[in-house]
Structure formats: C-alpha cells, structure tokens
C-alpha cells in the first residue's frame, strides 16, 4: 500500500457538496464541446453508410470516455487537488483526441487511439491509487475495469497499427468489448464481478451531469446552424431554414428538460437501486439522444445549403433519422426511469416513420418544417399530459 493515496478524496456523504456538480467538472466538459463538434463535422463531410458508421464509432468512444469520467466524479470530490489535477490531465488528452478526430481513420489513427486509451486507463489507475486504502468495494471494481480496458486497449492499438481497411474491424471489436464489460458487471475470472450495491451513486449528480452534456450537444447544433447561416446569402428560403433549425433545437430541449430531467433526478434519488437506473438510463440510453442531436446538426447544415430542390437519401436520413434517434432515446430513458412509454413520443416516432415514406415528394425546407412541427407537437403534448397528471 506504499503507492496509494493516504488522503481520502471521496465525496463526503451527507455533506452539502455530495450531490453538487463542481465548476471543474463543467470546465472538463468544455473539451467535449470540441469533441462533439469535431464528430458532427466528420459526419457532415463523410455522410455515407460507411462514413456514418465511422462517425458512430468516434461518438461511442467519446461518450464512453465522458460517461466513465462522470461516474468517477460522482464518487470523487472535485474540490480535492488530486481530483482536479486528474481532470486537467484528462482534459489535455481529450483535446489531443478531439484534434485527431477528423482523420482518425487514416493519418491520425495512432494519435486518436493513444489519447483515448491513455484517458481510459489513466483515469482507472488513478482511481485504484486513490481508493485502495479507503473503499475496497469501488477499488476492486476499478481493478476489474482496468483489466477490461487493458484488453480493449490492445485492440485499439492493433487497429491503429493495421492497414486502413482492417482498422474499422479492430475498433469495432474494442468498443464491443468495452460496452459489453459494463453489461456483464466487469466480470473477471478469479476476481468476480461488481454488484449493484458497489455502484451506489448520487442520482442528482448524475442527472445534472448528463443534462449538462445534453445542453452541450444541443448548443453544438445551434453553433453549426448559426455558423452555416452566417456565411450564406440570406434569402427567404435560408431564413426559413435557419428558423426551422432553431425551433427544432428548442423543441428538443423542451422534450428533455421541460419536465422529465428534473423528475428523473428525484426519481433516481428516491430509488432503492439508483445504480441500476443510472447504468441503463444514463450510461447506455443517453448516447442515443446525443447521437440524434449530432445527426440533426448535420441535417440543419444540409437543409441550409440546399433548402429547395429534391430530397435525396442523404437529406432524408439526416432530417428524419436524427429526430427519430433523439425521440427513441427519450422514450427508452423515460421507460427505465418512470416505467412508462409516453404516448407523445410513440406518436412522434410513428409520425416520423410515415414522414420518411413521403419525404422524397417534398422539398428540403418543407421536410425540415414538418419535422420541426412534429417535435414541437411532441413537446407540447407531453407538457400538457404531465401537468394534467400533477393535478
């Protein structure tokens, strides 16, 4: 135990800061503004089945770094110097990873992987160092997690060092291993597996952290559409397209934040099994919503560039697929937290499915306005329904 921390850097239970999101955590999240923006631009520039799949791989990696760090700061006290320094080191590595995203599958593959694996393993090693003398349950969890990430790290590097054609297969295997690890509770022969009791968390903190990331993702969508609009000729069509993009982003904010986000925090806080809800609702399902926002950002740029004319397959997939993924993520999240499927979300998904069948008969701006109207109706319907239930 010589090379372990003697000072306890865990959040103090029952203290005023137990559930508080610290400013340094928000500072850390700024790196992921850059990462999400880079991923959105990668998708826009490579919008094809293969390019979309590569963008998905990048986004899943970015998300996995962020959500694991959020679990860590749920336990660790960010006011302690050691924790802050750990976050600053991760921020630097995150900047390097983000810089490498545009060419992650060719010239900067090794840079991307080196930064990613460093963040995942470095954070876990820090946790082992910090917890060995202070919380055996969480310490053993991070020993198991480190073993899993050592295995996946080897696959990441194998992909970075392989030929470009085989790289994708290695990286899919690495991500599959990492996502599977949490699903099987990081089981390691001889060390057992984690238990849900070991993953006891602050529901308020996790809900706020994920809510803030959704703000970042939605803000990135506004940045993409605003930046594109600023460099275009302001015709009636582009002005309407810009307003449609803005209103759709507001509607997505409304669907997530108007009622559900705060209620979800209270629901998790009062649950007998907060770790299980957080594992499903936040660790896995939230990525669908972030994915949807990134695709919507691409759709906004496509419509702004070509508001009139015919809807091609690229436009159709972006305009309908992004909102569909976002609504589906919200639907599944609310099913996990509230044990119900909101009718408004089901109706919205059905409407988007019918719209996809007729989209090629529309102009891009008409398609965009119709999708925006569906999102607005979903948000309004849910708000009215929740208010009626509260009476």
Helix and strand topology:
Blueprint lengths: L22 H23 L3 H27 L5 H20 L8 H23 L4 H26 L2 H20 L19 H28 L5 H22 L2 H10 L4 H32 L7 H26 L4 H16 L5 H27 L1
Q: If you had to describe this structure to a student in words, what would you say it looks like?
A:
The chain has 391 residues and is an all-alpha fold. It has 2 domains: 23-199, no CATH class; 203-390, no CATH class. The chain has 13 helices and no strands. The chain has helices spanning 23-45, 49-75, 81-100, 109-131, 136-161, 164-183, 203-230, 236-257, 260-269, 274-305, 313-338, 343-358, 364-390. α2 runs parallel beside α6 (164-183), α5 (136-161) packs antiparallel against α6 and α7 runs antiparallel to α9. The mean pLDDT is 87.
What is the H-and-E element order? HHHHHHHHHHHHH
Number of strands: 0
What structural class should be given to the helix and strand makeup? mainly alpha
Largest sheet: none
DSSP strand content: under 5%
Give the helix level as a range of percent. Answer: over 70%
Termini separation comes to 57 Å
Mean pLDDT: 87
Query: Unreliable stretches, pLDDT < 50, 5 or more residues?
Result: none
Number of domains: 2
| Shape verdict | globular
| Helix run count | 13
The radius of gyration is: 21 Å
Q: Concise description?
A:
The protein is mainly alpha-helical and 391 residues long.
Keywords:
13 helices; 2 domains; 391 residues; globular; 77% helix
């Amino acid at each position: 135990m010589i090379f372990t921390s003697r000072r306890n850097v865990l959040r103090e239970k029952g203290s005023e800061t137990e559930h508080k999101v610290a400013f340094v955590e928000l500072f850390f999240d700024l790196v992921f503004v850059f990462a999400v923006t880079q991923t959105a631009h990668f998708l826009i520039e490579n919008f094809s089945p293969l390019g979309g799949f590569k963008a998905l791989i990048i986004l899943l990696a970015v998300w996995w770094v962020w959500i694991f760090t959020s679990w860590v700061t749920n336990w660790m006290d960010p006011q302690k110097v050691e924790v802050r320094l750990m976050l600053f080191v991760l921020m630097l590595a995150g900047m390097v990873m983000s810089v490498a995203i545009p060419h992650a599958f060719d010239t900067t593959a090794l840079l991307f992987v080196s930064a990613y694996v460093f963040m995942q393993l470095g954070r876990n090693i820090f946790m082992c160092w910090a917890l060995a003398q202070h919380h055996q349950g969480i310490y053993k969890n991070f020993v198991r997690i480190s073993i899993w990430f050592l295995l996946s790290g080897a696959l990441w590097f194998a992909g970075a060092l392989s030929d470009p054609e085989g790289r994708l297969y290695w990286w899919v295997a690495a991500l599959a291993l990492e996502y599977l690890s949490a699903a099987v509770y990081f089981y390691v022969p001889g060390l057992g597996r984690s238990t849900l009791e070991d993953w006891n968390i602050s529901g308020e903190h996790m809900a706020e952290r994920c809510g803030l990331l959704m703000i970042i993702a939605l803000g990135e969508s506004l940045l993409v559409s605003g930046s594109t609009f600023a460099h275009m000729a302001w015709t009636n069509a582009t002005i309407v397209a810009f307003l449609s993009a803005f209103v759709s982003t507001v509607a997505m904010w409304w669907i997530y934040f108007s009622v559900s986000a705060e209620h979800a925090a209270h629901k998790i806080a009062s649950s007998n099994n907060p770790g299980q809800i957080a594992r499903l609702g936040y660790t896995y399902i939230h990525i669908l919503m972030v994915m949807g926002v990134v695709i919507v950002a691409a759709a906004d740029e496509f419509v702004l560039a070509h508001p009139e004319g015919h809807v091609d397959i690229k436009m159709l997939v972006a305009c309908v697929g992004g909102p569909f993924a976002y609504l589906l993520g919200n639907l599944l999240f609310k099913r996990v937290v509230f044990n119900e499927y909101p009718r408004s979300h089901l109706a919205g998904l059905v409407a988007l499915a019918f719209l996809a069948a007729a989209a090629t008969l529309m102009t891009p701006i008409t398609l965009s306005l119709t999708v925006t109207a569906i999102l607005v109706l979903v948000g309004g319907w849910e708000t009215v329904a929740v208010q009626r239930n509260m009476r």
